[in-house]
Structure formats: C-alpha cells, structure tokens
Amino acid sequence: MTGWTTRDIPDQSGRTAVVTGANSGIGYVTARELARRGARVVLACRDATRGKAAEELMRAQAPGCDVRLAELDLADLTSVRTFATELREERVDLLVNNAGVMALPHRRTVDGFEMQFGTNHLGHFALTGLLLPWLRAAGPGARVVTVSSGLHFLGTVDPRDPQMDHRYRRWAAYGRSKSANLLFTHELARRLAAEGSPVVAAAAHPGYASTNLQTAAARMEDRAWAEQAVRLLNRLVAQSPEDGALPSLYAATAAGVRPDDFVGPRVQLWRGSPTRSVRAPWTLDDRASAGLWTLSERLTGVTYA
User: Fold this and answer.
1) Which of 174, 208, 250, 304 is catalytic?
2) Secondary element (H or E) of residue 42
3) What residues contact residue 244 under an 8 Å CB cut-off, 6+ apart?
4) Whole-structure pTM over 0.90, yes or no?
5) ∠157-106-160 over CA atoms, to 5°?
6) Sheet holding 16-20, edge to edge
7) Is there a smaller number of Cβ atoms within 10 Å at the N or the C end of the chain?
8) How far is CA 285 from CA 72, 172, 183, 190, 279, in A?
9) 250 noted as active-site residue
10) Phi/psi at 58 (5° precision)
11) What angle do CA 282, 286, 289 make, to 5 degrees?
C-alpha cells in the first residue's frame, strides 16, 4: 500500500457508483476520481443547489465524465426510500457511505433520531439495505465502503441509551456514531460472508482532512470566532480533501481489500498514504454488532433480505 495515490485507481469503466455527500470535501473528491477513471457516478446530495454546483464543477474538472445528481437526505428516511425507489441504474457496483455530520448541538432528524446517530449511521444503514439488491446484481467486485473516523475511539454505542437521550455530549455522540459505522461494517461483512455473497463491506477514514464538517457546528450556532479558529487550524495542520479521500478510494477500488477492512492514513490516524488502520476492539465485537443491527432494523423499518 505504500505510496498509493489516485494514479493507482484501476479502470472503472462499466461500473456504477453511488457516493453520498458528493457535493463537497472528500465525498466530492471520491466521486470525481471514480468518474475520471470511467465510472458512472450518482452524486447523492441533500442540497440540490450545492449538488448542482458540484456536478457542474466536476464536469469541468473531469471532461466527459458520466455523473448525475440525485437528492438524498440521510436525516429523513422518506428521502432515503424515495432515492432507492427512483434509482434508475440496473445495478450498483459501489456504494460509498460518505455523508455525515460532526459534533453538532443537539438536534433530531425528521424521524426523531439524534442527528449524528440518525444521519451518520441509521440513514446509511437504511440506504445500504435498500440498495443491496442492486449490489448483489453487480456480482464479484461490488463493494460497500462506509466512512468512519479515527474519533470512533471516543466511545462505542451504549445499547441502554444509543442516542444519548439522557445526557447528550456532542463529541461523544459523534464518536458513537462513527463506532456504529464500524459495527455496521463488521456485521454486514459477516452476514454477506454467511450467505456466500461476493459483495465486500469495508470501512475507511480520512484522518484529519480539511472539510466543511469541522465548521458546521460553529455556523449553526453563529459562533463566527469558532468557525475562524477551526479554519485556521485546518490550514495549519489538516491535509487536503484530495489526500483525505485516498483511504475511501483505496477501500473502494484497490485489489486485496478484504471484508471488514478499515483503511486510513498511514501516519498516526492523521495523514499519509492509505493503509489498514487500527480500530477500537469494541468495533469487532460480534454481540455488539448484532445488537446494533437489530436495533437499526427496528428504528428504520429496513430489514435486510
């Protein structure tokens, strides 16, 4: 894996990819680089205006690319179901569960879930379950890549209070949602293996990459000083979205990626070329992953067949 870059992405001609949160940050870079290698890419974005701007920029940066915009709000299960129902593709070779929110003040989704757990985990859980028939139809080479974070080490999902209803702490809630991403990947990989499916479920994290995630909470709370401080920190120590997208692109396209792999930057969970990353032991707990799966099916109403 040493020195792996976008130049090493294999030809993606004939493959269809769905990338959530493709209008900015590492999601945009991931979608653009897949399109540059010949994939047909569905840009699954919550905001139609920003999504359209991203689509136009992508066409300018990757002339001749095959991309289309589709609205998807992961904080609204009706939107998730509509997206899956209206998907025009006959098959999906790659699903990149990239979109997310970070350390927000306490908010709830349309369906009443804590926003970080609901968006980062439940929305993607539902989307993956609904798109699984398309992925199975793609056969060998199909993958589901879910973007977690090195900050999953902040804590695992407490089955007694998975949405932190009793004492909400924004960073702990973020860490739990990112642990949920890894528990989901672990259980999905186990279930796919049990059914003999060739679909590979893996996870990735970008390290510390400069994206809109870090400033969203400050903007929501109208804390201009905090937003400026984060922007300064990003300029000083964060890697670019281009570098931050490398683990996702590796997990999505590189040969030798195994079920339940977790790919991240080589240096201190922070930056560098992609490699298999360390992860908290609780994200490999079969009982915890099965319990979260059962809870997620009940909350979303999406049952994996």
Assistant:
1) 174
2) strand 40-45
3) 25, 26, 29, 206, 207, 208, 209, 210, 211
4) yes
5) 30
6) 66-71, 40-45, 16-20, 94-97, 143-147, 200-204, 262-267, 271-276
7) C
8) 31, 19, 8, 11, 12
9) no
10) -65, -40
11) 75
